[in-house]
Amino acid sequence: MQPYPAFTAVPARQALARPGLVPPLQHYRTPPPDLAKTEKPKREWPPAVRLYVQRSFAAENSIAEIGREEMELKLKKVISDAAESNTLHTVDWDNLPLPQQMIQAERIRTQTMNTSLTSAWRDLSTLNVQETNGISIHSSSQKRKSSDLAHEHNEQEIPPLWHSTNTGGNFEDRLTYADKRQRNDLLGKTPSKSQFALESRKRRFEGEENGSTSTHPNVSTMGSSHMPNVDQGPVVGTCETLEKKYFRLTSAPNPATVRPLPILEKTLELLKKKWKSDNNYSYVCDQFKSLRQDLTVQHIRNDFTVNVYEIHARIALEKGDLGEYNQCQTQLRVLYSNHLGGHPMEFKAYRILYFIHTCNRTEMNDILADLTPAEKKAPAIKHALDSRSALALGNYHKFFQLYLETPNMGAYLMDMFVSRERLSALTNICKAYKPDVKLRFITEELGFESDEESARFLCDQGGQAFLEEREDGVRLLSGKVGNIFEGLKGAAFRKVDI
Given a cut of 50, is residue 171 above it in pLDDT? Predict the structure, then answer.
């Protein structure tokens, strides 16, 4: 007797659809698209266009107040417009203004238009006319609307541009303003509290200067001669005094108090002599800030400017004034980018050491990425890079050897964080050398000049009780003092004084 199977055999189905109801899917398949037809043809840019792009990104053609992203957008628009109009081969790319020059020209035109609008609004605001029996009488108690004035004098005066009846392209709609308040202030559509406050504040300042305050509500003081004119260009100094105290500018500089370049050169020589003889930092720093201010207001940027900032930065480093050093270093970066001479390798090495001091990894990565192979071989930069590498690897032996061989004035920067690194090295020594270690070993490893200096450092850090004098010399009980140095190390790396 044969046993019955536990299942019923069913033939496997070859398709999901029932036969005869749905035709095979291959009849509905569409032929694959021709990939060759969908690919866009590769555009060949003319050589003149490529040279135009290279000139746009050249460092010597950059403009400080125009960012790279803004320039790239303008460049893309110029080239795309030429490509769409099929004028890539007809445009004179050699004489076409660069994108940054176009942006600068547009800003100047916009500023000129805004200035003209402000002047027109100011002229209208001073007109106060009151009708009495058909006769126009000037009055100081009432202010007529500019629309009424334009209606009454339409044959004698030209109405303002923003009152034009051409609604298809109003002039005010084509202007770009910083915000809606500025637009309303200039066009006179709504009362402006900010404009009234500005005029009141200006009248108050003028009253303090002239001994009386004008209270006339309809006279605008925005056109006063006391306001500095930013379009006048750089100041040309006429002062011949070599020494001048530094004062922060609160108004347009007076040429009578600004020293020209020949006088500034003599001032620099005088300051160098006084620094060597008197070593009075507060006086020299004040004089250098005044000298830098005169260079700035006259837009003087040359090798002399670089020399002034370099000398001031070195003096600030010598006295540990990181605030003034940072100001000089920031300006030197801009001056070096214009290839005005100086010692860029020296100060780039200082920047690396400064970022080690401040533990600024972001800026450190940026400067490392910008270094060229030739710059990495410069002695000062190579020393700074080796110091950074030694600290990153925890090789304190090599770091303190480099500390004793620092070129130029880099030792002043390394002095600012060497105590912190000595504490870090001491924690490692205490873990590796137990139960004690010779004081002479610490002196040699941590870059001290003598055993007395190393013993004084240990006492300042609270290790006086752990120094023992034996027959073979003074020893530090490293097995007991390690926890103290560990806590001091954490506090030193937690706070960085910049």
Answer: no
